[in-house]
Design brief:
Helix 16 packs across helix 18. This protein is an alpha/beta fold and 575 residues long. The longest helix has 53 residues. One of its GO terms (molecular function) is ATP binding.
């Protein structure tokens, strides 16, 4: 059996469903009234055969027909109302879980896992708001129809009970037979989606290196595995659905036969014959609906378990309120920093230590693989460290709300990492969506672009700052994208500026703009940390740190460090 409670071991999932309990309670109440009204056709049949036909009462037939019409109209309205309630329940689940899923993606981690989490959330939302959820709410009322069948005659009740037991056994067997295939199909399809996403993001490289056909073949193989497993599950489910449909139709007809035998013996009335068939059909219908939709049900439960794995924390963590600290001056202190590789196999940083004071430019140099980029990402708050400490103005980064701290840090990674949006949105860090003042955003955006030396280029774009650029800076050259990313780092005059190879794609004019902006940031009191190997960007640094094997080898004033280096100055990028 699928263990539903596994998903609800996650406090986040449990809290989200608790937030929807009003919706579920209202839907359950509507289901109660619906299923009571489903008794109306059976009662109508009893009255027609036992009262109208026997007495020839045409007026009675008119009245009970009007009553049936009202009952069925009310039933239809309740059914529509329940559907709306369940749709709103799905929307409420989305409101509860989507912010946490999207924050987890935006906080870093595997892009493919994040995309899978969004798909899982949509699967759960659609299932909660769909007809399968309605069938699940109807299923508990099956015993009511069995009890009414017992009231007609014990033999009819026993037959209804036995038929329901057979259908439940078939349903459980269907779940057991398809569970492994559905889980495997979900995992394989997730891998396929992840591969497609990565290939699409690197399409240019794929074409240039002639990898298109091999990658297409690999993706087709991944999809074939998923679709094969899904097809097997659907074939098995189809057989069980057909068997259940056959049995339900046979059981309804058999109920008529049993009723006829009882009527011949004078144990029930003629009207009870048809009523018994209607009651049995209604008792078995939810079970049949669940089996028919079992593939979707299984997918939803798998998605729910996946979400529980993506969101294991307590939702109260998001609501944790920290003491609001004053704007930092920019003093950065890193002590014995340790960062392990994602697989935990080796340390990338193994005891790095440095200090960057306000009004100072600190350069970090070292050979390829020494941990420079990892150190820059930790200082910028883009990567969590495993051991050691990183402090700003004496306070650990954890003492800050990440978005508040990020407003005081300007970070320029090796890759520009621009996002889908306008030039202004990218430079302003999408401040418009944070609710910042529009005039202030415009002024800061233009000032940052001017400081980065990119303002004139932006003004030549078709729509200027409102020109839309695609993800990964499509439509821009590498140098243009890097200067826009540099302007983003300068936005709002941050007190800490972390630049990782800021001139990697720039010409001499671009380098000059970067150096001038670094000096300007230092002069206004910011601490500037720059990783570079080209002399032009390292000229204005006040202090140097030499990294080797993830450790601080030498640190101090620029001239003293250079004097201590007996060999050639370490150069190269970190891989």
């Amino acid at each position: 059996m699928i263990k539903i409670d596994e998903a609800f071991e996650s406090p986040t999932i449990a809290a989200a469903f608790r937030a929807c309990r009003t919706h579920f309670a209202a839907a359950a109440a509507a289901s109660f009234l619906l299923n009571l009204l489903f008794l109306a056709p059976a009662i109508y049949m009893l009255q027609v055969y036992d009262r109208v036909v026997a007495t020839g009462g045409k007026l009675t037939l008119l009245y009970i027909t009007i009553a049936l019409l009202l009952a069925l109209a009310t039933l239809a309205l309740l059914d529509a109302l329940r559907g709306r309630i369940l749709i709103r329940a799905g929307s409420r689940l989305n409101r509860e879980l989507a912010p946490r899923v999207l924050r987890k993606i935006a906080s870093g981690g595997n892009d493919a896992v994040g995309a899978e989490a969004v798909r899982d959330l949509d699967t759960v939302r659609q299932t909660v708001g769909g007809p399968l959820a309605a069938a699940m709410l109807d299923a508990p009322w099956t015993p009511v129809f069995i009890v009414v069948s017992f009231l007609l005659h014990p033999w009819l009740g026993l037959f209804a009970l036995a038929a329901t037991a057979v259908l439940l056994a078939l349903a459980l067997r269907n779940e057991h037979a398809t569970r492994a295939q559905m889980d495997g199909a979900s995992r394989a399809l997730g891998r396929s989606y992840a591969s497609q996403q990565i290939v699409a993001a690197r399409a240019g490289t794929v074409r240039a290196l002639g990898m298109r056909e091999p990658l297409v073949t690999r993706q087709l193989a991944d999809r074939a595995v998923s679709l094969d497993l899904l097809q097997r599950a659907q074939f098995i489910g189809g057989r069980y659905s057909a068997a259940i449909r056959f049995f339900r139709l046979f059981a309804q007809s058999a109920a008529l036969g049993i009723g006829a035998l009882l009527a011949i013996d004078g144990k029930i009335s003629a009207g009870a014959i048809v009523a018994a068939s209607i009651l049995l059909g209604r008792a078995l219908q939810p079970v049949e609906a669940l089996v028919s939709g079992w593939t979707g049900f299984s997918s939803a439960l798998t998605a729910l378990r996946n979400l529980a794995g993506h969101l294991p924390g307590d939702p109260a963590d998001d609501a944790f309120e920290r003491t609001r600290l004053p704007a930092p001056t920019g003093l950065i202190e890193v002590e014995n920093l340790v960062v392990r590789a994602p697989d935990g196999s080796r340390p990338i940083l193994a005891g790095a230590t440095l200090r960057a004071a306000p009004g100072e430019i600190l350069g970090i140099i070292g050979p390829s693989g020494s941990g420079k980029t990892t150190l820059a990402r930790v200082i910028a708050g883009a990567l969590q460290h495993d051991l050691g400490s990183v402090r700003i103005d004496g306070a650990p980064y954890d003492a800050w709300d990440q978005d508040e701290l990020g407003a005081h840090i300007g970070f320029m990674p090796q890759e520009p990492s621009l996002l889908d949006g306008t030039v202004k949105e990218n430079i302003s860090r999408f401040a418009e969506w944070r609710g910042d003042d529009a005039a202030q955003i415009d002024a800061r955006t233009v000032a940052a672009a001017q400081a980065a030396g990119i303002h004139e280029f932006i003004m030549r774009l078709p729509l200027g700052y409102e020109t839309r650029i695609g993800g990964m800076a499509s439509g821009l050259s590498a140098g243009q994208a890097q200067l826009i990313a540099f302007a983003r780092a300068l936005y709002g005059d941050p007190s800490v500026l972390v630049l990782d190879e800021p001139n990697a794609f720039l010409d001499s004019e671009g380098e000059r703009a970067v150096v001038e902006a670094m000096i300007a940031a230092r002069d206004r009191g910011a601490s500037v940390i720059v990783i570079a190997h080209r002399q032009a960007v390292l000229q204005p640094v006040d202090s140097l740190v030499l990294l080797g094997l993830g450790r601080t080898q030498v640190s101090g004033p620029r001239d003293e460090v250079l004097a201590k280096l007996t060999g050639p100055r370490p150069t190269g990028d970190e891989s």
